[in-house]
Amino acid sequence: MLNFIDVILPIPLPNLFTYSITRAEAEFIKPGMRVSVPFGKSKIYTAIVFSIHNQEPLIYEAKEIHQILDETPIVSRYQFELWQWIADYYMCTLGEVMRAALPNAFILESETIIFRNSATTVNDSDLKDDEFLVFEALHHQTSLTIQDITSIIDKKNALPVIKRLMDKEIILVKEEVYEKYKPKLVRYVKLHKQYATDGRLQELIETLSRAPKQREVLMRLFTLSAKDHKPIKVSELIQESNASSAIIKSLVDKEILEEYYLQTDRIESNESKKNSQFALTNYQTEALDNISQNFKNQNITLLKGVTSSGKTEIYMKLIESILVTNKQALYLLPEIALTTQLVQRLQDYFGEKVAVYHSRYSSNERVEVWNHVLNNSSKAQIVIGARSAVLLPFQNLGLVIVDEEHEQSYKQFDPAPRYHARDTAIMLANIFKVKTLLGSATPSLESFYNAQQAKYGLVELNVRYNDVLMPDIELIDLKDKHKRKRMKGHFSDRLITEMTETLEAGNQIILFQNRRGYSPIVECQTCGHSPQCPNCDVSLTYHQYRDQLRCHYCGYNTVMIKTCEACGLNTLDSKGFGTEQVEKEVSTLFPEAKVARMDLDSTRGKYSYEKLIDAFQQGDIDVLVGTQMLTKGLDFRNVKLVGVMNADNMLNFPDFRAHERSFQLLIQVSGRAGRTKERGKVLIQTYNPYHNILQQVSTNNYLGMYHEQMDDRHNFKYPPIYRLIKITLKHRDYNKVNTGADWFAKSLRMLFKEHVLGPEFPPVSRIRNQYHKNILVKIPKNQSLTKTKEAIIKINNSFSSVKDFRAVRVILNVDSF
Ligand code: ADP
Ligand code: ZN
């Protein structure tokens, strides 16, 4: 009898591929192991064994496999089940899911290069013979290829050795190796040494009598150091003496105080462990009880808890309760919310049991987490991660938590699989027959609708921790302010007054503007021309900091032009404003305040995002200007005021979700204000203060927003009432895209009639020299999703068999955003 395996190749092939194996191999191989296989004329791929059988393929001759790469499976049967669901539901191939799921280091390819890991000390006697040979060779050569190793150990199958050496951390495969985030340095102050003698000190205090604020700081420093002889943090001093950081800075500049830096964890590790214990408040306990109650007859429960109500604490207690059963917990968060802040909180509480998994991790770190999860190791009993963590090889999952479930970044946009991590997580929980908790202060319409339909349980928590009041939200009419000349730049007099008071009280400010750069539109006042990106159909944004014009779609940039390219006059003017301009204006209005900016441009560097957050937390920044990056799960204690510079551009965004999203974004950013003691203040500047969404935001009226938006979704046939599949056609040739899209839409219309929208060019119809055109298929609840997809696939197949259209790329996006 002949033996065969079907494998998944990490490429977008619709079918599994069959290879032949020997009898001995058949006894060894199990589904979920990797094998390397020849494909096409000369390629070698790492493939995953899907099944083992005896059916010879009918239409091609099965080739032999090249090597077996594992000794035990690295992909579990639960994962196969999930992969299959993803491939079916999101209309992609298993190979695409495999690519997304496996850390790159698992997909060793023929050019992989191996290095010695100098961080590990190796005891020769711990090595098997073949391992030793490779290890030895790396003393003479800095790197080896897989071919090299094959000939060194004189075996056809080098990869198990490589894997073992990787597991023992003796070698590294070529990958970008990111350094781990170094523990942050905290700023401390002490009296400058020139005042060490009593006499000089007396003198100093007298000279400061004319500077009462500075004197107050100094006196406070003395009391603090006398009290517990500990180093004094700048942030502590600021808080205790009610001084601004500008005052501290001037004392340092005058060499009265001296700053120095220490690593936090060296000092605080014991302290934070102690503080990590907490008890739930009565409200939180009630919410937790309700969740457990709901779980008795619901698999999924939505926790709708206002910002700063302590949802995280509830998650932690829930996780704790499943840990005693030795099960694994998955805690999903949007990428950007995975700050050290939250990770630290969990690690302080759960210690070594917490593993973190997200895209900024190096491939090696990801392999480590993968193996821990696969082996059900206690080191990854709690996995906290972004989208792709849902694809880890859980063995004994006990609970899934999806925090900030409304976040659009849970949906992968490109490349395939275009999966929604929240929905996939629910499916994963389903496979393990365990519960899912979704959490948000501003649930997605989808989830809240499911709760209303009793498909999900619903638990509400409407009080903030410590009974801090919800922030007071005030709308400011920009039209009126302009008319009455009450504006300085983009700041209304109200905003300036509130900022002044906040800074004087030593509190911090967040300013939100949903555009980066200096000004998004540069336009000639004489001829109306505005500079365009040569690769995309979009105007370029002015970035003053670099004196550049940049494209936000493809990254194209050029030095700022002085005269109009069209008419030649120097009458270029800029319209609109971004974070860079806000930052600049703050510096002019408040020269004493320390301003920083948090957006894509300022956080490109490794850990620059974390550094900004640390600095803000330490009180080294008074005013933080930023884009929506600021809205995700950040917990700052000292922010009193949040200013939204302009709420209008997001409300006017051409998308059926624009209103829902604006509501979520504004409530979330408002939620950063007044989280600890006093009530926070939020000022929203707008030209449309009577806009329903803004009214709903200012009264925290989620239900009002929900009902109004749901009416629209009903009337215009959008989710969650209808499902959507978006079909995008892409090609360099405008005409090809046009005729192709017409053909496609016409075929769809024959079946789905009025439920087909388009084809339509999106607002930016050319990106990186590719034209895009979209067709939308709306699917009523009572229409079979499976049949609809089958029909679309059929049409797509006929489409690509038309010679003229073969080169047009078709992208299918199920539940598109
Ligand atoms: P949410 O996620 O709902 O916005 P958080 O979980 O971040 O709220 O809680 C807000 C703040 O209140 C955090 O600083 C948190 O540490 C604190 N907090 C919440 N509940 C408790 C509790 N039971 N004991 C101590 N601190 C708490
Ligand atoms: Zn561009």
TrEMBL record:
- Tell me yes or no: is RNA-binding among this UniProt entry's keywords: no
Q: So where does Zn(2+) 1 get bound?
A: C524, C527, C564, C567
EC number(s) per entry: 5.6.2.4
Q: Which residues form the Helicase C-terminal domain?
A: 555-714
Q: Which positions fall inside the Helicase ATP-binding domain?
A: 292-461
Residue sites binding Zn(2+) 2 per the record: C533, C536, C551, C554
- GO MF entry, a single one: ATP binding
In which domain of life is the source organism classified? Bacteria
What InterPro entries does the annotation carry? DEAD/DEAH_box_helicase_dom, Helicase_ATP-bd, Helicase_C-like, P-loop_NTPase, PriA, PriA_3primeBD, PriA_3primeBD_sf, PriA_C
List cofactor names only: Zn(2+)
Show the NCBIfam families listed in the entry.
Answer: priA
Q: What is this protein called?
A: Replication restart protein PriA
